[in-house]
Amino acid sequence: MSQSVVAKRYAQALFELAQTNGQTGAIQEDLLELKKVFQTNPELGQLLQSPRLKSAKKKELMADSFKGANQLILNTLFLMLDKKRIDEVVNLVNEFISYANDAAGIADAKVYSTRLLTVDESQAISTAFAKKIGKTALRIENIIDPSLLGGIRLQIGNIIYDSSVSAKLERLERDLIGS
């Protein structure tokens, strides 16, 4: 995740407001869309950082561009514009999601497999590994990796559980060569 102290502070403030107003889920969805916009249109970030454009015009542009967004998000964006921190929007979203996941007892996980996992398989993996890391559930992103040969590799943050056939073969090879 982000290492930005500024993004953490904005995210924490927005998260606390969202919790107070009972809008955490809706704000999280809006923020994910906002992140997509900023990532796919880097010109928008450059335009909003431009000293040629006045602050009032930037706010007007933001209000028009994100009409359907939650007012708390718009207010946060306006504040970030005023403080010249609009370049931290993507980091803010990442930090907000981290706070929301922690509060809900959810962790993001990447599962590498040779084929697409079924819903039941994903649920079983979520249930089994969530307990190991002290969470209630995992939000799984399934990534197809034919080099595994079979089995799965699970990554939760910087923890990796590897029960793939290729990893087992590599361990066996090391054991045989080391003997």
Strand arrangement within the widest β-sheet reads 2-1-3-4
Query: What is the chains' assembly state?
Result: single chain
- CATH domain fold name of the largest domain: Peroxidase, domain 1
Order of helices and strands: HHHHHHEHEEEH
Give the name of the CATH architecture of the largest domain. Orthogonal Bundle
Number of strands: 4
The low-pLDDT segments are: none
How many DSSP H or I helices?
8
In brief:
The protein is of the alpha+beta class and 179 residues long. 60% of the residues lie in helices and 14% in strands.
Q: What are the key terms here?
A:
single chain, 179 residues, alpha+beta, 2 domains, four-stranded mixed sheet, 8 helices, 14% strand
